[in-house]
Amino acid sequence: GQRGKSSLPHARERTLIAVKPDGVQRRLIGQIIQRFEQRGFKLVGMKMLQVSEDLLSQHYSELRAKPFYPSLLYYMTSGPVVVMVWEGHNVVQTSRTMVGTTNPTEAQPGTVRGDFSTHVSRNVVHASDSLEGAKREIQLWFQGQELLNWDCCDQKSISEV
Ligand code: GDP
Ligand code: MG
User: Fold this and answer.
1) What predicted TM-score, i.e. pTM, was given to this entire model?
2) Which domain range does residue 41 map to?
3) Which amino acid positions bind ATP, per UniProt (predicted)?
4) Residue nearest to atom 5 of ligand 1 (CA)
5) Alpha carbon distance 113, 148 (integer Å)
6) In-domain check, residue 154
7) Buried-most residue among 31, 61, 81, 118 (CB within 10 A)?
């Protein structure tokens, strides 16, 4: 494969992952973080917050016309969420695979949704669905200074880039 400068931005790819209110209530925060840590991704930002409807309406702006949108807002503001930014090679796509399909009915065992949820209305976790979406969501949820550039001591064992 290609080495050098051209592959660096890809290794620094970032995505937004959130433990939704049901995941927090069900004490799944640790298990979800563990999956991303053990996969080899690097945590570069994390906070717990009660989300405002304003933030959510921006986060889910594409879904505004959906019939389930009001119940989605209710669900997502029903309690605190833990929102994180994870960094690493192909992290956006790999995270979507780790999280599983939107509807847990179809989610494979081994995925977060396939292991911890049964219904689309309470699917435990959020993951950005594209590079552009990740960039937009990270800017929406985090201030620049809340994201840290730091060196993981095992980075050379995780990837050559
Ligand atoms: P995601 O990217 O896999 O989270 O899925 P979407 O972006 O399509 O939808 C965002 C979130 O809206 C999902 O994770 C669910 O929490 C919720 N959602 C999506 N479809 C439905 C639905 O048919 N019914 C309900 N109640 N919620 C839904
Ligand atoms: Mg989505």
Assistant:
1) 0.94
2) 5-143
3) 20, 68, 96, 102, 113, 123
4) 102
5) 28
6) no
7) 81
